[in-house]
Design brief:
This protein is an alpha/beta fold. The chain has 14 helices and twelve strands. It binds ligand FNR and lactic acid.
Length: 364
């Protein structure tokens, strides 16, 4: 009997049945020994919720505000490349799903649909993620298009001066399917992403050719000069860099180790979140991604101080399983699990989910 997914892990199993092995490995894999992928999960698995009782939990609303935008829950889609690898509807499906669920969608620079098509399909807020390219004119063009199409923030990913050593992709000689393109970038800029050579990841080769590894804090002023949109940095893992980002006037931070796909081993996202929240001390919203696989994980991240929690791989699983409705279903499930956790933990409002609601690093 086909049973609808009742937990996030169900989406993973359903997606695996649909995806070609090399695409599965590209999505699932991390870099190096995949220690960070495991550590992201382990940090959540070792968290222990501390419930309060005799609290009126007859309603537990999950709606929130993020940079002036209403969300049905403190949830969103983390930026990921090439959604058409998962489903023919690609990012248009993701936009439908995220919009239906009322959550944030951070569109990836390597989206396989145009920013304008995605915006036309979206009923919820969109942000646009960028990598720092040598071709600054391309960044300027994307920023201008994002403004016109109604995107509400730019996310600069700062943990990828080059691509991590993803052994699965190297072994598979992974290249992006010739029918799937980065729809917002010129074909000549993207040619190598389709190249398949044993021992080589086309994603890594392409990044080596086009990403500008000289990015430093001083460059933020140039990005700021392009647009009045809020600027959010993604890939912050230390309190030191968080302070520095605040000093440079960024509008938000995303604590992330890129789902364990870049530096490995490194700090699990939940532990980095605690450090960053302390350093930022309320100066700007702090988002987090990496290893969030259920409503209790979302609750834990909120207790540690996250404003909103982003979901990477599970969105691609849901998209592979059932397109836009799959993505809507995934976020409905996460919202429901969060609401359920709030009730059982005696925290009926998001503002009640305080640091005392969770103990990290349970022994044993
Ligand atoms: C990513 N991620 C990513 N990040 C980014 O800033 N730009 C990108 O283009 C991509 N592309 C991408 C592709 C795939 C297949 C994955 C799995 C991830 C990283 C992503 O935004 C996020 O940080 C992690 O996926 C979060 O971890 P979880 O939820 O996948 O564990
Ligand atoms: C990733 C970046 C390249 O695959 O999008 O993580």
């Amino acid at each position: 009997v086909a049973v609808a997914p009742i937990c996030v892990e169900d989406f993973r199993r359903l997606a695996r049945e649909k995806l070609a092995p090399d695409v599965w490995d590209y999505i699932e894999g991390g870099s190096g020994g995949e220690l960070t992928v495991a550590a992201n999960r382990r940090a959540f698995e070792r968290a222990e919720l501390r419930p309060r009782v005799m609290v009126d939990v007859s309603t537990c609303p999950t709606g929130t505000e993020l940079l002036g935008t209403h969300l049905s829950a403190p949830l969103g889609v983390a930026p990921t490349a090439y959604h058409e690898l998962a489903h023919a509807d690609g990012e248009v499906g993701t936009a439908h799903g995220a919009g239906t669920a009322g959550v944030l969608y951070v569109v990836g620079m390597f989206a396989s649909r145009t920013l304008e098509e995605i915006a036309a399909a979206a009923t919820g807020p969109l942000w646009l993620q960028l990598y720092w390219l040598r071709r600054r004119d391309v960044l300027a063009d994307l920023a201008a298009r994002a403004v016109t199409a109604g995107y509400r923030a730019l996310v600069l990913t700062v943990d990828a001066p080059r691509i991590g050593r993803r052994l699965r992709d190297l072994r598979n000689g992974f290249g992006v399917d010739p029918d799937v393109d980065a729809a917002n970038l010129d074909a000549d800029l993207m040619a190598t992403t389709h190249r398949r050579r044993t021992g080589e990841s086309a994603i890594a080769v392409h990044a080596a050719e086009t990403f500008d590894a000289s990015l430093t804090w001083a460059d933020l002023a140039w990005l700021r000069g392009l647009t009045a949109l809020p600027i959010v940095l993604k890939g912050i893992l230390t309190g030191e860099d968080a302070r520095r980002a605040v000093d440079h006037g960024v509008d938000g931070l995303i604590v992330s180790n890129h789902g364990g796909r870049q530096l490995d081993p490194t700090t699990p996202s939940l532990h980095a979140l605690a450090e960053v929240v302390a350093a930022v001390d309320g100066a700007c919203p702090v988002l987090v991604d990496g290893g969030v696989r259920g409503g209790t994980d979302v609750f834990t991240a909120l207790a540690v101080g996250a404003s909103t929690v982003l979901i990477g791989r599970p969105v691609l699983w849901a998209l592979a399983h059932d397109g836009g409705p799959g993505v809507a279903g995934l976020f409905a499930l996460l919202r429901e699990e969060l609401e359920h956790t709030m009730a059982l933990a005696g925290r009926p409002r998001l503002a009640d989910i305080d640091r005392a609601a969770v103990r990290l690093d349970r022994r044993g």
